[in-house]
Amino acid sequence: MTETRPALRRRFPWSRRTRPGVDLALAIPLFLLETGWVVLDAIYGAGLEVWAAQGEQARIDAAELAFMERLRVLQIAALVLVVLAAVFRARWTVIAHLLLALLLGGALAGERHEWEKSHSSPGCVRYSAGC
Question: I need a surface site. Which of 9, 31, 43, 85 has the fewest CB within 10 A?
Answer without folding.
Answer: 9
